[in-house]
Fold this sequence. Notes:
By secondary structure, the protein is an alpha+beta fold. It has 2 domains: about 1-40 and about 220-265, no CATH class; about 40-220 and about 270-310, Replication Protein E1, Chain: A. Helix content is about 35%, strand content about 25%. The protein is built from 11 helices and 13 strands. The protein has helices at about 25-40, 60-65, 65-85, 150-170, 180-190, 205-215, 240-245, 260-270, 290-300, 315-325, 355-360, and strands at about 1-10, 15-20, 45-50, 95-105, 110-125, 135, 195-200, 225-230, 230-240, 255-260, 280-285, 345-350, 350-355.
Amino acid sequence: MYIISIIAVATGIAQTVVALAGTMPARLVIQAGIEDRMGELLPTTYFHIVFTLPQALRSLCMGNRKRMFGLLFKSAQHTLLTLAKDDRYIGAVPGIVSILHTNGQDLNFHPHVHCIVSGGGILPSLAGEGSGVRWIKEKRSNGKFLFPRRAMEKMYKGYFMSHLRKYIATGELKYEDKEALEIIVSIAGKKKWNVYAKAPFGGPAQIVDYLGRYTHKVAITAHRIIKIDDKNISFRYKDYQDARLNDKVGQDNKQKVMTLGHAEFLRRFEQHILPKGFVKIRHAGYLHSKDKMKRIAEVCKQLQLPKPMPRVAIPATVRLQLQTGKDVTVCPVCGKGKLQLVRTLMYHNGSLVDINELRNRGSPRIKKMRVDE
Length: 373
């Protein structure tokens, strides 16, 4: 999680992002998520595949983010699960973790999905339906890419464009100019779509590190910001296009510094705040949420591996003590008394409400309390 402090400047129109920093609660959430993921990793190669959206469709995506982001996820997962059925590649159902990114290094709008795909997969047990699953060992563990890139690009484009046209026909997308819409759809249909098949992950530790770095990041991290003054914000970014061009002459100029005015920085940043309730990390294949741990436990048994460790909810106070060495429940005044949690209040719709009542969505009303109670 990141905190953005926005302060009105004396000009009367500018709003400035003056601070962007990772918070301790966010790091605790990330750590807990990483520990959960560790129990889902199996002894197989994991491949990294990136599905991008053509530039022609980005404006349409900006105005229909939930629908278009959802289609981006569905198209990527459909492509991977369909190709995985082929016995030449896996011949089974793989595990897939998909993570939505909406920005490039320069903070411009650039939606794409990163997929972590297992080299092995599962099939129904030979004993018949309802009798469990069996593990199918990976077939491309010698450093080769999991699926042919061109096959992925064609299937991904075909599925996305087919469903996009259905959305338009059924009125599920918002747009102002029908003629302009037809032009951009036509342009996108003629373009070559890009799917990047990156080198496989080096092992579970690298996967966990990757997930930890990206699962809770919004557009930019604090360490990339190098200067903030009354007018501008400067930050480091990687110019991948320039790097590709200079690779031919043995140069590496991809690390650069960009300076933006406050208003432009804020405009770029807010493009990457996701719609309320939108889930940016999704699981498919044998990592689908329903009965996931049961499937993984069956595979571990077949491979003669220890059972996945049960998930343990570690209180935030304990995690803080492990990371900082300080017990935050000890009274900061006397150093002896222990703080006791009485209740948790949250500022909601102008009033403080008990968080337990907020969680009970069936409650007909929420008792409001004065801030000074």
